[in-house]
Design goal:
Four copies of one chain form a homotetramer.
Chain A: E1 9-11, H1 20-26, H2 37-53, E2 58-63, H3 66-75, E3 83-88, H4 91-102, E4 106-111, H5 120-129, E5 135-141, E6 143-144, E7 149-150, H6 153-163, E8 168-172, E9 191-195, E10 206-211, H7 213-220, H8 231-235, H9 250-266, H10 268-290, E11 297-298, E12 310-314, H11 319-331, E13 333-337, E14 352-356, H12 363-380, H13 388-397
Parallel strand pairs in A: 1-13, 3-4, 3-5, 5-8, 8-9
Antiparallel strand pairs in A: 2-10, 6-7, 9-10, 11-12, 12-14, 13-14
Pfam families (chains A, B, C, D): Aminotran_5
Family (chains A, B, C, D): Belongs to the class-V pyridoxal-phosphate-dependent aminotransferase family.
Modified residues (N6-(pyridoxal phosphate)lysine) (chains A, B, C, D): 198
Chain lengths: 399, 399, 399, 399
């Protein structure tokens, strides 16, 4: 019997659950886009956006998804014949590199696999080997949504400094911004990109490129940048429409305004801590299920390397898919598919799944999702260790 | 640290969580109320409403809350000088009796306390003692929202038949309709009243009186009934406005249409079973917490007497209030206050609380709410037995 | 060819067009009804409601439509065997009288027809003839929605004073409150009733009884008043639920809060003046159409007796219906049907129609509606005088 | 006194007024983007989109505004060193040319001024002069939103054929698609671009490139196209995310689905005819105001060259701005600013304004807007000829 007839809960790693205030704010008539409230609103949003990334730099807003932000950020600092170095820790690292290749940029990749994150030593070695400083930038995923690996930018910056390499440090924060602590300026990141639909809790369709002063300098040296991607007028517009390279994305802006207000009313530090605690509750449950020869495996063994916004898991055989289907059909929860986890034995990655725990998220949502996972594993006959739900509740109780 | 910044979850015994489809349906411009779509829509809703109550009788729709439906139902069948007999199993039984008194009707009460439900033998005795058949009706709560007692109408009907008493059997189904199995015709109920904001999943503001043929006869014998409460034109209108004794409650009707579609698409039997299973999951957890000298007490010990839509609980001292506050502030869950549970030691009923589990409800919502209860009891230092969350998940898994 | 595929415009005399802010405010989850924001919100609304009626008296809020408010107001001041005097100037005057009869109250009527309003001299005579002061109240419609007659309360109060009659003066302000100037205290009105769906711009389902000090005294002398209609706990509640005699109408309250904010932000005097000017624009057009032997007839010839919120019109033969259909099908405008205007020659009142111009209304809406009327009269071949639209625009220009 | 306190009406040339059904559709939780309903929905939308453009070709959907679609369309068919020929009839023609230059494409322009549209003879001459067929495409605006000129594609295609030139014919249909008749295949257009926020009645944020078979061939010969703009996977995706080059723009898609349903339920021919008739009503009024030495001037004198979706007007001195302000402040109507109309005497174009009449538009909206223009001209003291509103109503009546 299905027990799904209540509020659906989308626990995929983006788009995330949207606050009612965001959807409400988007439910309004079209505004004038030449003058009036929307102009004031956008001018007020820019500093609020920068507070999310902790930067005194600039921000360019794009009507685009995260792939668009990838392309935008690259277009402004490199072109055909240029080279970048990409630290890959999952499918999305490959994706950004591919985007560079599409622009005629050579993207050299260091592949760190899917389980252990970036080894800064190897990065330092690669940069030292680039004696002619051909790499214009080092690209990495702050969180790779596929593997749920969290890469700390600080050792990367240290490696670059140690190598004395002038490349820009570019962070893909699509799955992390607004969830994980991120200090763009303090941590020495030159460019950070993100999208609207995860920690920012707005529908997909907007993306953002944060631009530090060194990146601005590199842009200025570029011979030509396409009008749509050129961040120059966007980060310092003379006219309102230049914020968006044309017509403003009115309704996403309404939603984003609501979202930024929620985030800053809560406080970014508190938002980050909330994600830490809720992630620890999830890990406590997952580690309990893994115990006693349970079938579940957390993709990332080291807690220090785990994202606080997404968790990739393996359940063996086709049980990832089976569990996803059971909780969707019987409990009203939608989990994320495994991405980039295909193996010979499991060519469609059906043994894997992901939990999104980003954005508008609180204790009962996490505990309810975990409860349905336990019920689901039991229902489909997957062996799992005991005490998981109590362990998660204990983390919540202690918060 | 608060972990409440996500979707709020209102787990009080009404108003219940509303489906998005209901709120969506209510978000539309005012319609013409003289002709067109709304007329067709209402005519189509009447049979759907009657299917919820399982009756071939009539239904009167009132713009009113449940108290209004109480008054409406009484006004049509009794007046000053008449008598009714009220079987009281909690605060709401007293409330209906009080409503009768306000109409000049003498309301004799049999008080069955707050824990064991109606004893049909005592009802039968009382009716046998009424040899002149002064009681025009026997009133009872199918579920009393305060105590969470479920009263089966069938033994009451049997007692009335055994006593050979012609009184009408009137059921307060405000907290039960659309959640608990209810078979108005098959079970011999003459009048059933309910409201929009619980099992029907629509905001408060509409209520319903279902009218069986014997009740219609009694109405016809009444010398005068106030125009607003008179169900005669409402159950068989010549003009559209008569459905509502004046202007139609347009937006509640839009919401109700959406809600009835959801209910009947799922199927009433399935809706009832879903509530049974989810209640059993809640009971499994509560019984586990009660074990091992846990502080928690289910108000109703006998599972057969428990509502499947609301559960009243005691936690001792002021811990009911403390728990409510903890889960609201830290986990985003709002529980119901204890009602009518005041004692000398606890004059404000702060040791009690209630879980609403009615309407638009699925497995992850229930499991998440239970998880926060466990976290909350731990956080406020209330002793509770082990294994509650696993026990609840087991019920879900077996469904 | 239909030109209706744009925003529909409902120009009937209630429900009126709702502001987006009202619908937005109603699109939110169910709130806790025992404590928290809704309690604060309602306490803050009571003074704002009283400012609309310009009274320092009390207000009772009912979950009911206008017919419910009629019944509520009467129930508190009269009962079986009592008498009231009703000044009838249209269908709704008859309706209120009928509501009184349903309560066992004798309702004597003075019928002033449908075109000239109340003659205060006749009222004074009737009251003088009531030497034993049997009439407990004088009832009248501030605006009768059917005839669009506006009855000034001041001469009625003067007549009552001149007659030295102690009856209460009770005003039906359902079609006028929030549109027409109304000064309950200054004008000597003891009880005023209204609904949510016209000048208050909220869906039907709430109604209001404003209670002056003399009315409170009369209530206190009543032997018994039904619990649902009793205004005593509603106007001075000890507990929050008593405001509403049970469960609060949460979503209507959200909408009403938004509406009251809009009204008071604009300012009641400005709201009234806006209705005056827009009505004058409508009259200017209608008078122009009537000129040159045009078929159109304003039901009320004297501008001083015309409502500023609704205008009843005759077009002869079945042309009222034909025009309504044309503008609905071809231009997206819904006009009100003629009510209570049936004649021998026109037994279904198809020669008549009404324009609602109440509430959330501005210049372009009125001018657009008038433009479609001109187009419609031309299309269905009804002769009409020239210059109507220019005359209306001139009124707007001069505002 | 302001008469603006009712429904605001945004009569600018985009974004256009959105149907309630579109905003409703967008008010829903985030969906799964990997499987389920959204996949089916998008697959069903593609043919409906192509029916709007009347093409059997392909369509690429971009998360971008119109400027993004300009860049996308160019990127797929030309690159650095290539040349295109742009027929300019207003500011937006210059804009598209500028976008080409940003991509390293040489954009030769023929400027046809702002009042008379494209002279196909001059185009033919220019193409004949390009004997080495360097121009890869001829770009033009179907409607230039700034000047409100309508350029018929058929003579352009004929000129290209007469010149025997193989260039692609590329139409900017941003301001026209869904409003003006457009037959991409029958009229020989190879690429058409549009946005979501005008005739498609969805918020800004989506744009569309329709791709004919000759354009597909040109794309295939391109050495490299950036991943985001490459239409290849978008027009023929293997995986769902490829439709959008990454994460799907879920909420815009919900809105677009609703909008396409409205358009096709009405029928594209009927939609086009409705725009023709409503435009003719506007012209009738404007021509009347211009008569008798009225100050108003339609920018385009020849009816055959006027857009049916936007009308550019001059009022002299600063009266364009003054009128815009008056109708916004006093009547609730927002008009469009003049764009690209600056002169020495009027360096900020304050003598000009534009009426948007595109998309979700019906007779009462147009007539109401015209009525406020008349009131406004009178209020600010601009001389205008008589009979304008009656003339517009006559067009509506005759439809």
């Amino acid at each position: 019997m299905s027990l799904a007839a209540g509020r659906p809960y989308l626990a995929i790693p983006g788009p995330s659950v949207m606050p009612d205030a965001v959807l409400q704010a988007m439910h309004q008539p079209a505004p004038n886009i030449y003058e009036g409230d929307i102009v004031t609103m956008v001018q007020g949003m820019v500093p609020d956006l920068k507070k999310v990334a902790r930067t005194d730099g600039k921000v360019a807003i794009y009507i685009a998804n995260g792939h668009g932000a990838w392309e935008a950020s690259l277009t402004n600092i490199a072109g055909p014949g240029d080279k970048v170095l990409v630290c890959v820790t999952g499918r999305f690292g490959h994706g950004w590199a591919d985007m560079a290749e599409g622009l005629g940029i050579t993207a050299d990749k260091i592949d760190f696999g899917t389980k252990t994150g970036i080894d800064a030593t190897r990065l330092e070695e690669a940069l030292k080997a680039d004696t002619s400083h051909e790499y214009k930038a080092v690209l990495f995923s702050h969180v790779d949504t596929a593997t749920s690996l969290l890469n700390d930018p600080r050792p990367l910056r240290a490696a670059m400094d140690a190598a004395g390499h002038p490349a820009l440090l570019m962070a893909d924060c699509i799955a992390s911004m607004g969830c994980e602590e991120f200090q763009m300026d303090a941590w020495g990141v030159d460019i950070a990109v993100t999208g609207s639909q995860k920690g920012l809790m707005v529908p997909p369709g907007l993306s953002f490129v944060f631009v530090g002063p060194r990146a601005e300098q590199v842009r200025k040296a570029m011979p030509r940048v396409s009008r749509y991607w050129d961040w120059t007028p966007r980060i310092d517009p003379d006219f309102f429409y230049q914020f968006f390279g044309g017509t403003a994305p009115t309704h996403h802006l309404f939603g984003l305004r609501a979202s930024l207000t929620l985030l800053h009313d809560e406080g970014m530090e508190q938002v980050w801590k909330r994600h830490v605690t809720l992630a620890e509750a999830i890990w406590a449950a997952c580690e309990a299920w893994s115990s006693d020869n349970g079938a579940l495996r957390l993709n990332v063994a080291d807690r220090a390397l785990r994202s606080h916004a997404v968790t990739a898991l393996g359940l063996g055989e086709r049980n990832g898919s089976a569990l996803r289907q059971w909780v969707a059909n019987n409990a009203g929860v939608t989990l994320g598919i495994g991405l980039g986890m295909e193996t010979k034995e499991d060519p469609r990655g059906e043994g894997f799944f992901r939990i999104g725990h980003m954005g508008h998220l609180n204790a009962h949502m996490v505990l309810g999702m975990l409860g349905t996972l336990e019920a689901g594993m039991q229902a489909i006959g997957v062996h799992h260790g005991p005490g998981a739900l109590g362990a998660a509740a204990k983390v919540i109780a202690a918060a």
